[in-house]
Amino acid sequence: MDNHPSEKRLPFLKQHWVTPMLMAILILPVLILLPWQSQKIEFRNRQEQLIADTLWVEQGIRFHLLRNEENLRFLGDTIIANSKVSEQLKERFSDLIESHPELQQLVWLDANDHVRYSTREFKLDDMSPLSQEAIEHARESRTPQYSEPAVQEAQDRAIFMDYHLPLFKDDQYIGSLVLTYKMSVILENMVPWWFAKDNQISLSDLDDNVFAQRSDGGYGRNVYTHSRSLNLSGVNLILKTNSIKEAPKLLSNYLVAAVVLMGLGLLWSLWALWRDILRRQAAETALREQIAFRSAMEKSVVTGLRVRSMDGELVYVNQAFCDMVGYREDQLLGQKAPMVFWASEAIESYKKRSSNSSNYDSLNGFETVYKHADGHRIPVLIYESALLNDDGEQTGWMGSILDISERKKSEQVLREHEERLESSARLATMGELASVMAHELNQPLAAISSYATGALNMMKSGNLDAEMLQPALTQMQNQAQRAGQIIRSVHGFVAKREPNRVPLQLMAIFNSILPLIKLQAKSYLIGVEIYIDDPLPDVLVDAISLEQVILNLTRNALQAMQELTLTQRILQIEVKRVDNYVLTEVIDHGTGIPPEVAERLFSPFFSTKSEGMGMGLNICRTIIEFHGGQLTYRDNPNGGTIFSFTLPLANPQAHAQTDTPIDLPTELPTDLPTDTQKG
């Protein structure tokens, strides 16, 4: 017979009941030992604090004494250098005493112990025997000495301590400086008030003879005490501290109440813990199953998934999306516009789409660019639709993101193939021109050869008739002129000649080809900035030829920047008037032109591109010179190259400048340094 379900759960309940009981057995001894341990810790902390404070006070007293010693040494050096009692020396004596209340007086004794100067009335008999012994010892050892503290009858039996500084000049004793401390004032001025409020402080010798004592808060209770030796030269002073605090009580009222409450709380927590264990186990089991299923599903999806709330906050991303943009999940969740993976050149487009999410085409999607964590750009295709809950209410936006980098690479390869086909077509055109020229020259040359043969035959036969020979020579002359005319026509097409141009506005030309420039720039993910002075005077140009020049220069500039980071990919075009010319500059931020390339930059059939013909810049220069201008290049100070060309004004006299001219050269140089081959 099967057991009852409750009987099956009984071992489980017993197993989870044992843990709280063991916890109670361990916690109760801790609660019992807690007051005693707390008392020990409090006692130790107070003692350690007293030791640290005493050490700090001892260092403060030592610092004051050392500073006074240093000041006295400076006075001694002054006396050694000039043994006269000057007014300046008297002022320095007085300043030292007045600025340090613990100093009673300062005396200058000569080599015979006669008083040279003293800050107050002083007789040698006022000096204690201990101080006289110290001055003798200082003189013999040639080192400063403190005297043992002693009572001076002349000073109301107060206890004083002298510091003796012997003075020597050229190894000859010339006197001493004696600095007198009042022991009680040392404690009053050198011990902080907050320390004296909680402790009784005293200065004594090794035999516990007290020289000074301070007890602002009362006498010490001999519970917390500590002593420090000052270790002064010639005397050992002991700094003793005795705290006025009592020993900590073993058990205070608040601690008893805390123990009782903790005991009651422990019993309640054991019951609550037993009650909640089953609930938690069931919830954890269900959660583990859901997490395992969701994790398996997310790992099998290669499409990036993201969820945005109604206010634009990123609330969910899968691992494929994290791998796509190079950020961890915790770095992405909670973000709002602008997101870290938004590319700078497309931020405005992102914001516009985020604010008009209802206009998304969830079937066709839209293309944009994301920025990877390492900085490189990722072309993506995004499908986004409304995220609905069980009640049909929209709670956010669900997006599916596809990495279309491979598709873009295929499109780029296709474009490159198309460009190579165009290059082949240009070569074919040049071949056709050569074929036409050969065909046109073949007929007059054949006629000349025929007439020449006939004339030679007449001469060989001896029947040379001038009337018969003249028509042949005339035909030879006509055919030679015809061949020369053909050659002159081809030569006139490629050689310099006076330009045949019409007045035009450059603004109109740029408006015509700007869509083509932006189309090229978009394929390289490059921004275009055009600055054209308005108004500009007319220039004499052939529109078709000039468009060919501008498109060729801009295309070269775009190709020079394709290896840069996207923030650096900016194509700049500037058009302005300079004297009787209009100057156009095409500026890129690429790698520049190496010197070895610059030497052959405009040479025909020279190119650094594997698919290039080497005719682009050569043709551009020919066209500009045909228009009466110049095509030059120079380094871009910010990296890259600046190609410039000038075009003459249609009517320079009618557009003469009356304002201050722009600080630019009127004639562009042709021997500037270069950086990169452009075509």
What's the short version?
This protein is α+β, with helices and mostly antiparallel strands.
Give an overview in words.
The chain is α+β, with helices and mostly antiparallel strands and 679 residues long. It contains 15 helices and 22 strands. Strands 1, 2, 3, 4, 5 and 6 form a six-stranded antiparallel sheet that branches. A five-stranded antiparallel sheet has the order 12-11-15-14-13. The protein has a five-stranded mixed sheet with strand order 17-19-20-22-21. Helix 12 packs parallel to helix 13. The chain starts with a helix and ends in a 31-residue tail after the last strand.
What's the layout of helices and strands?
Elements: H1 5-81, H2 87-99, E1 103-110, E2 115-118, H3 129-141, E3 145-146, E4 150-152, E5 158-169, E6 172-182, H4 183-190, H5 193-198, E7 199-204, E8 210-214, E9 225-229, E10 238-243, H6 253-300, E11 304-309, E12 314-317, H7 319-325, H8 329-332, H9 347-355, E13 366-371, E14 377-388, E15 394-403, H10 405-461, H11 466-494, E16 502-504, H12 506-523, E17 527-532, E18 539-541, H13 543-560, E19 570-578, E20 581-587, H14 595-598, H15 616-626, E21 631-635, E22 641-648
Helix pairs in contact: 1-2, 1-6, 10-11, 12-13, 13-15
Tally the beta strands: 22
Radius of gyration in whole Å, from Cα?
A: 52 Å
Question: Helical proportion?
Answer: 40-55%
Compute the separation of the termini in Å: 94 Å
Count of DSSP helices?
Answer: 15
Shape: elongated
Structural classification: alpha+beta
Strand content: 15-25%
Q: Averaging pLDDT over every residue, what do you get? A: 77
Low-pLDDT segments, ≥5 res? 1-14, 428-433, 489-499, 657-679
Largest sheet: 6 strands, antiparallel
